[in-house]
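Run folding on both entries below.
>entry_1
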Amino acid sequence: MHWPERLRPADDRLQDALLASEAYRPDVSITEVLRHVQGRRVTALAEHAEGHAAEMLVVKVFHSPRARGNHRRLTVLAAAGLTDLVPVSHGCDPSGHVGVVGHRPGVELQSVPDDGFVVACHRAGVALRRLHESGAELDRVWTSTDEVAHLRTMIPSHLAPLVDRLGDRLGDRLGDDLGDDTALVPSHRDCHPRQLVVDGDRVAWIDLDDCTMAPAGLDVGNMLAHLTRERIVERRSVTMVADARAALLDGYGHLDTATRDRWERRSLLRLAALAETRHQSPTERDALLHELGACSA
């Protein structure tokens, strides 16, 4: 594939993978860099000229050989009847560092205008239920134990005492309980409003690099916590967020309330940690921790 010099990332750790990409799919041309995570990956929009029509594709170049597993799992999801709901994989290069998937047009749920946001959240709930009930069997697993262990590695050390106190109030120290691991479903695992695109009355999940078999509450809790954050960062009003949360849950259907709340608390904790470490916003962190405390009251 062709990378215009102005778009080719200056990233030493990605140079071998970028060279692999240039040797793969010579019929594909990069048109725009969508995201570059230094040293880890670059995601780009590309064009495939076929006859008189140009097909838009998404190219992902990884430092590690993640593209091979992504292709395998997207193929399983396609076989489960989800080609309208997840990107279709167009394969990966022999090294496993470069993947090509179909482009899903639309607006990210996070950027949908207010007058369409609640309806889009209902459609997101329906789409999430479809993914969970697809019957796809993915080749990796993420359990409650994995989630809690991951959370504890990312919590800033000075917050640990506060987190422990909140955990004591919750009774299970923020969730070592494995009771919701008995039924694992195909899950997005990085489920939030930037991972769903809305195109008219259609929606589709994108960026399924982390998809896995996991408890259903993981995705639902992530979406609910991110909707709460929409209010905290003043992107949406209090009323709109309340309506959006209700619409999401209505679209998704039944999920045990205790399980849902437990996973939402874990997601709020993760967002609080990221507010400090990634966004350098103590105000947002404290507001999310306040939500965590209110959620556990």
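>entry_2
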Amino acid sequence: MSTASQIYDVLGGEKLLRSESPSFEELRDRIRQGLPYASLEATADRLSLEREEISTILRLPPRTLSRRKRSHQLQPDESDRLFRLARIVAQAMDVLGNRDKASRWLRRPNRALGDAVPLHLLDTDAGTRRVEQVLGRIEHGVVS
């Protein structure tokens, strides 16, 4: 399980969220207020995600993404989906050892997920939970 500080770092850290390593409660409050658009960019940069990929994962049409960029703020529900993505990225980096390995793993079909690409499952909570389970099995040494 990823810590609040690991997720915080994926979301852009102190530079963007203007707080020193917040707790999950503080992150929850930030999500309820709406995360800054720059957190979306920081998370996308971590995985070298294209605009279309981020749009699909967060279920935000490109025009909405453009509006959020201009306003510099995400809505609470969009922030919650971004937090879900950041949580998986942080967990993958923790389990697999670094950003590059996590990025590769998230982009490759996975037999334990029915040959689905983990990144493609992150647009729903059910898919995200499956990816979390597989990462948990890897963390505990179960071949996945």
